[in-house]
Amino acid sequence: MKNIKVLGSGCANCKTTLKLIEAAAKDTGADIELEKVEDIGDIMSYGVMSTPGVVIDGKLVHAGGIPDRKTVDSWLAG
Question: What is the fold of 2-77?
């Protein structure tokens, strides 16, 4: 099971990223634990200056803007 965190204050892009990851996991059958992190201190601890950020199993894989679906699928497959 992958632990995925979406880092962001709750902006539209953050919510869209969360929904995109949920949909991709459902479509691919990936076993994930999805968490939304809104605490600015926690977000900064990952070095994210531009949200949304995506952390998978403790590693920052994306920051700033909505990732495309192919990228999300590659995270779930990897």
Answer: Glutaredoxin (3.40.30)
Spatial distance between the Cα atoms of 38 and 42, rounded to a whole number of angstroms: 8
Residue with tokens 């076993």: 31
Domain boundaries, the chain: 2-77
27: amino acid identity, one letter:
D
The predicted model scores a pTM of 0.95
CA angle 54, 7, 44 (to 5 degrees): 105
Q: Going residue by residue through the chain (78 aa), what tens digit of pLDDT does each one get?
A: 999 999 999 899 999 999 999 999 999 999 999 999 999 999 999 999 999 999 999 999 999 999 999 999 999 997
Bridge partners of 36, per DSSP, are 6
Cβ(25)–Cβ(46) below 8 Å: no
| Contact (CB, 8 A) for 63 and 49 | yes
